[in-house]
Amino acid sequence: MTPALHRFLTFLLPMILLVQALPALAQPAVLKGKITDAAGGEALPFATISVKKSARGTAADANGYYRLECDAGKQTFIFSFLGYTPREQTLELTAGGEREFNISLTRNDSVATWKPVVVTAGRLEQRLEQTVISMDILPSRLVENRVENTMEAAVEQVPGVTVIDGQANIRGGSGFSYGAGSRVLVLVDDLPMLSGDANDVKWNFIPIEQMEQVEVLKGASSALFGSAALNGVINMRTVMPGDKPQTTLSVYSGLYDSPEDERKKWWGSRSQMTSGVNFSHRRKIRNLSLVAGAHYFNDEGYRDGETETRYRANAHLRYKVNGIQGLTLGLAANTQKSEGGNFLLWQNDTSGALLPLGGAGQPGSTMSEYTSLRTTIDPYIIYSPGRWVHKIRTRYFFTGNKNNTSQNSDSRFYYAEYLVQHRLLEKINVSAGTSVSHSDVSGELYNKQEAGNYAVYAQADGHFGKLNASLGGRMESGRISGKKLDPQYLFRSGLNHETWKGGYLRASFGQGFRFPSIAEKYVRTRVGQLVIYPNDSLDTEKGWTAEIGLKQVVQIRSWRGFADLCYFHQEFSNMMEFRFGQWGTFSDPLFGLGFKSVNIGNARIRGVEINLAGEGNLGRVKQSLLGGYTWIDPEQTDFNAAVDTPRNTSKENILKFRFRHLFKFDSESSIGKISIGFSARFYSNIENIDAAFESAIPGVKAYRASQPWGTWLFDARMGWQIIAPLRLHFIVRNILNEEFMTRPADLQPPRSYTLSLSLKV
Question: In terms of Cα–Cα distance, which of 209, 109, 297 is closest to 758?
């Protein structure tokens, strides 16, 4: 052995022995256990455990079990969960050993700090500020205090969101599509609410009386949620029982004021009224959680013939099985019958603005009378042993439509999804699943058609100190009436980093798509003399969204909120638009003029959004805020002036039926037994529509010319706690009685008044 080799081995061998000995010398200790609710003994899923004055920490799993590696010796641990009083506990841990420590936390409803939790961004609970994509939440408190009777009216309060003829639009991603093909996937408790025939949203069917909060995911999200999530997701989460039973009953009545232009008032001296009742009861009976609700609403209508009467009942049962850890069985059901009239186009912009083209109840009228029955039945199973969570969710959705235009139809939508989630290395949550859906429609309107989708997907969400990361993908295939659609392969990713205290930088990219609906491809129908034409050659539309954003936590005394600034960029290919033009022959009604869904080509929407939301106490005043401003630049990237300009009212390259500027704001202040709320909305003028609208529909061109700048709308409300369980609300909508349209020939409501009395025990 050479002297040099001897010296090297003399140095190396002790180092090897030292490295081998280090794990034993610095072997960590393990603390494990379960975190539960002190009152009911239920697990607190995803509660947090941290070592005091250290960056080390973890979160419990879906069953409240946790496991934390840390240094040996005496350590002080902090156990916390939203809405509960945190607890500190000092424990002695042995190197290389495991110690089990179970702890219960006490609910603290007086905690003023607002720390909203969402599930839609990654299908697991997350703090709002830690999501990698833009999200807004709409709390049930705002919906209750505004006495909204449909979810459509409720989501109109969310910044960047509009709803035109039932079609949700997030940041200008959609235009006008009458009754078919939503680019926004609407969910109730993660189950799709789109009908099987037209893939549209039945907003008045969503059980608003059972709402906990609405989560709005902005941007292409098909990699996690599939077809129709091209523009985003709106997910309503229903409330479940707490420790004490609760019953809520709300009775309300209202009336429409006269339009500002008295020539438009068709109902004479008698006021047009609205009335409604909401009922909800929630309680626990041992292992059974029960939620039951009912709803009634009657609207005499501010437009001639556009009435609505609906009755709804729903229930949700959830049972925790004894003897099998983590097994829960559930069943939810909702059914509604409604009848009334659908208004499509006005007679003219003056005395006939609130009268249907062709007259109410007359042959050839654009007002149709309907009766509908809708029912959902949703059995599900959740099994979560330890770090695993298995979910099987299913849905049966029946829609039956009858009307006076020989367009009766029945639609049956079947949906099933299996989702498995697992926590790895205390930092990564992995989700994977598969879903299948089938639609079967028949009747005078459809003859007989069917469609179906099948998908597999996976996603990983990691939490690494101040960094949150998300990565996922999806494959989905579909068919319509036996014709296969091209399978879609999708990808999404995102990062969120707490760069400074309370300042969260995020960046994300997500792909989306939407298969055409049965109605868009195969249905030819009429509303009066107006024909809606099918398009058998309609192709799948695709797109992607990229964004960068900053969310800053704002803390003022006991008031907490978020200020959010975001730049977004959306690209679409084969974009579908609902066009008004001559699609038929001269022998057809109106010489072939009508609506048709077509692929217009490629489009790009860029924009900026600034939001502010929060709630809490400022001295004696409880203050809540929700507001934001959205600016978009929507254009067709393959715009051909020679071909496209004659079809449009704008000579510039701008997508149709978009609001370039959108502002939303809502504020509510409460002190003692009195609360006062105020909201404002601004819609800039729609710069571009189909030219045929102005030439074929009386008064559209003149009315648009009279409102070139846009419309401000203001609402106000006041609440009074008469006695502890009884509360009175008074709401005035459209205080200034402004006239406005969200699409041509469709004047929105004049000023209205609503009085509500609610009982909560």
Answer: 209
